[in-house]
Amino acid sequence: MGTPLTCEDLHIKISGLRGEIHHLQDAVVSHAVIDQAIGVVMAVGGLGPDQGIEVLTAVSRRTDIGLRAIAGLLVDWAATGRLPDDLRQALNTALVDAGSDVTEHTPAVGGSTAVHWRGKLEVA
């Protein structure tokens, strides 16, 4: 049987475990937001899941904004209809590059209709 842990050892161990829990909670939230953003991209671009993550990653690279932050902005766009112009342009370019050729109205986005056709993405 090993040496019993001291009170200080237990505090250190508890602190480390709390840090791990916090990290795991952040990862779960981050993953959920990224998954939601992939769904937004798939819906807007008429793409499959693999293409959705490729578009999301391409937008992150083009804008030099982290993937989680881009994902949050796209999820917010789905709720509010507002998307910064530079992000809108990067998304449009990534959708075209991914082969998206949607020429129909997507479902309502934040009370307005998002319209996408090859070469243009806007909220009407």
Describe this structure in words.
- The chain is of the alpha+beta class.
- It has helices spanning 7-45, 49-63, 67-80, 85-97; strands spanning 105-109, 112-117, 120-123.
- The protein has a 3-stranded antiparallel β-sheet with strand order 1-2-3.
- The model is unreliable at 103-124 (pLDDT under 50).
Summary, kept brief:
The protein is of the alpha+beta class and 124 residues long.
Keywords:
12% strand; alpha+beta; 124 residues; elongated
Task: Outline the fold blueprint.
Elements: H1 7-45, H2 49-63, H3 67-80, H4 85-97, E1 105-109, E2 112-117, E3 120-123
Antiparallel strand pairs: 1-2, 2-3
Helix pairs in contact: 1-2, 1-3, 2-4
User: β content, as a range?
Assistant: 5-15%
Distance between the termini: 70 Å
Question: Helical segment tally?
Answer: 4
Q: Percent range for helical residues?
A: 55-70%
Low-confidence stretches: 103-124
Q: Order of strands across the biggest sheet?
A: 1-2-3
Characterize the main sheet.
3 strands, antiparallel
The mean pLDDT is: 81
Please provide the ordered H/E string of secondary-structure elements.
HHHHEEE
Q: Which structural category fits the helices and strands?
A: alpha+beta
Which quaternary structure do these chains form? single chain
What is the alpha-carbon Rg in Å? 20 Å
Shape: elongated
